């Protein structure tokens, strides 16, 4: 899925590799195309042309070589052609073959509504129609597609539903940016498999309609993951039957969550839930103060459960089991960041009960970090039977311990600033898969506390790539296959600093810039001013 080859040498002169702003050279200054056999050659002198007769055929139109459609993210490859292109017409339809109806009806109906066209299930597309179809599974990389504009018709094919869907997004944007789709062939697909937005709905309540609006925005940008961090010190924001006592007001009902995940599925977006533990559990601990971690002096530690107490694990596992069916997507975030027992100088002296439990479980040389690693692995064991991919924040993985985090847990890398946090190369050298949430580029923290500043689309667009995991220096390109993509993260540290509408406006351009760089990490050729102008045309502020 990391790219597509360019066209064969025989058509190399016609290929446009369409990173942002890259278009085929215009042929308008070239000699006109040769007329078809039997057509008269246009005069090259000033002599007057003969008067047309009633029976004379109309002259064959001449078209410049097409240029790539202007979209966000930009298409990765466009083979230009001469022709009028395609635009929606009232009598035209979006057509899905009967054999693909079960898979592509949603995509077809959505596009038809967006372009104000009819929808039909037919094996024979007619003049002006858009034909959606599935190709052989595995024939091209996952989420890829081909979009052909020829003879007044559009054909979109892909090896899976997501690929066809992304082809419809390209067609929609081409029409939105220029009024029509250019003649020729687009071959396109993402560089990274994970692309999206992380949303802190624990510290700030976001309404279901607002979240669904973000899903639609993400879908047009070909983003495919929405992380929902719904439990933190401030609040626990989703209805629970197993532990209603931990739930805050306001919160999302399970019916609302099902509505959100159903829309996400139709838009080929995976919703990734996160119950952060063993830290960031203040809302849970208000209802269960007996599970609170205390230091050697008896002082409570904010947000932290006592991981030496079996009752702590029992409660969190009950919540994990309850919510797994609510989120049918294929990933789960276990949290594991900022456990306050591990940010002090001497965890073993400060928390002797944790040190004792660590030695009892892992032997005489074990430390508190080993007990925390065991907690992470145990929660992974609770979720793993569901088949979901497992994730945890990078500062929940420790070096030099007796216990080791399970190999199948993806590292969500956000910071190198925390005490004990390791640089990305340490994880990569261990062979781990990483997802990029670099807090210097991709953290939108409400109120800008702790020296955070709101990210800009321009900085992401011009400076960041998935290889830039920490700070502004990329890791070596040989590790590219271990980096699974990236997400922009909204954190509501000072929840009242912005309204929902202000958050939506603030992340619009950063999200668009992220979508470009996770779809195609190559340096864009469209300058930022052009990219921003295109973004404003496609999604007005």
From TrEMBL:
Give the signal sequence positions: 1-24
InterPro entries to which the protein is assigned, alphabetical: Beta_hexosaminidase_sua/sub, GH, GH20_Enzymes, Glyco_hydro_20_cat, Hex-like_dom2, HEX_bac_N
A Gene Ontology MF term for this entry?
beta-N-acetylhexosaminidase activity
Active site as annotated: 338 (proton donor)
Q: Does the keyword Signal apply?
A: yes
Extract the ranges annotated as region (Disordered).
26-71, 176-195
Q: Where is the Beta-hexosaminidase bacterial type N-terminal domain?
A: 69-188
UniProt biased composition (Low complexity): 40-64
Q: Which UniProt keywords apply?
A: Glycosidase, Hydrolase, Signal
Which Gene3D superfamilies does the record match to this protein?
Answer: Chitobiase/beta-hexosaminidase domain 2-like, Glycosidases
Q: Which family does it belong to?
A: Belongs to the glycosyl hydrolase 20 family.
Name assigned to this protein = Beta-N-acetylglucosaminidase
Naturally occurring in which organism (per UniProt): Streptomyces subrutilus
